[in-house]
Design brief:
Strand content: 5-15%
Strand order of the largest sheet: 3-2-1-4-5-6-7
Structural class: alpha/beta
Order of helices and strands: EHEEHEEHHEEEHEEHEHEHEHHH
Number of strands: 13
Number of helices: 11
Helix content: 40-55%
Length: about 375
């Protein structure tokens, strides 16, 4: 098949923080290309060095200014509308498909979350307005798609018309445990890993406060490893700026616990990455974490008021950490990349075949 993929971003070493959707689009496009499909990604970013697919850059990088960034989103949608998709069998949009002309080609729109849910959990009124302004476009994009895929069942509470759920995947060749389930690989001091942003719904700043006020005073040799958008200078805090996937997987393997206390996750890719690496997960009960962890079956859910004591308890309990590591590995198998790509490939093939049969019927 010839597959056109719309993704505003791709993984970039030049950007301080690359969103999860960029990695999802990149991994799926690579996997499909490696299966023999002709894949072209239409984007605003440069082609990653490890890309097995083609790239058509349709716009310059997104500006930092919020108002210009909002205009840029619509400018990108317009640029997509000017592209020629006539040579493709199917279009897979991760966003910005509101204005494109498919000319009868099947279009799959994947929703990685819901802007309305983002607005509900936005920390400021400016952010809330930002996401609310995108909600009509998101619904419009979904209405124009042949099939709408959500990465979680929770997304269906905010967006109508979802046809099926295909979760995000994890590359278990990269994100995998070390020897003896990391016993030979763990850091020699208690280490908590955080991957996200300090501000906003990821609540890295809150975790930092808990570490400084509760965890570090009780465990003086404890460390907080932060993969975030800026460097923090504080006792016991170690920052890692934009590590590649291999380096990130190594951080997961060496950490004692992974913690992402978000208010909202449409899916929560870092949770699955941590579990695939054999690292226990602690999360606050947001939508994505509750679904992935099945309300605590595969990891630990703790309300913010109990998060500090929960982390301390787990750091002091090796037996429980080992048990959670084993459970996490079992859970991660359901999100292995081959399984997820199989689901998309099956969907694409069925839609292309259905379109061909329809055309043949009309010709007859």
């Amino acid at each position: 098949m010839k597959i056109a993929v719309l993704s505003s971003h791709l993984p970039s070493p030049d950007r301080t923080k690359t969103g999860g959707v960029a990695y999802v689009a990149h991994r799926q496009a690579n996997a499909l290309a490696q299966r023999g499909h002709n894949v072209t990604v239409f984007t605003a970013d440069e082609r990653p060095e490890d890309a097995s697919y083609q790239v058509r850059r349709v716009l310059s990088a997104r500006p930092a200014n919020p108002f210009r960034a909002w205009l840029w989103i619509w400018q990108l949608a317009f640029r997509y509308s000017t592209q020629d998709f006539s040579g493709f069998d199917i279009i897979h949009a991760h966003g910005n498909n509101a204005l494109i002309r498919t000319r009868g080609r099947p279009l799959v729109r994947t929703l990685h979350g819901a802007s309305k849910a983002e607005a509900v959990h936005a920390p400021t009124w400016k952010k809330r307005l930002w996401y609310l302004s995108l909600t009509p476009a998101e619904r419009w994009e979904a209405s124009r798609a042949s099939k709408v895929v959500a990465v979680s069942t929770g997304t269906g509470q905010f967006v109508q018309g979802i046809d099926l759920v295909i979760p995000n995947s994890v590359d278990t060749e990269v994100f995998c445990p070390g020897p003896n389930l990391n016993h030979q690989h763990r850091h020699n001091h208690p280490a908590i890993l955080f991957v996200g942003t300090l501000s906003g719904r990821k609540r890295g700043q809150m975790l930092l406060g808990l570490f400084q006020n509760q965890i570090r005073p009780t465990l003086p040799d404890a460390e907080l490893w932060m993969v975030a958008e800026r460097n923090i200078q504080a006792p016991g805090v170690v920052c890692f700026m934009n590590p590649d996937e291999s380096a990130l997987a190594d951080l997961y393997r060496r950490a004692w616990v992974f913690c992402l206390p978000s208010t909202y996750e449409g899916f929560g890719i870092p949770y699955i990455e941590a579990m695939a690496c054999g690292t226990p997960v602690v999360a606050t009960p947001n939508a994505g974490a509750r679904e992935l962890l099945e309300d605590g079956r595969w990891g630990v859910l703790a309300h913010p008021s109990e998060l500090g004591t929960t982390l301390l308890s787990l750091l002091n309990d090796q037996t429980r950490r080992c048990s959670l590591a084993q459970l996490g590995l079992q859970r991660a198998e359901a999100f292995a990349q081959d399984r997820v790509v199989d689901a998309y490939e099956e969907l694409f093939v069925s839609m292309v075949n259905s379109k061909s049969q329809h055309n043949e019927g009309q010709g007859a």
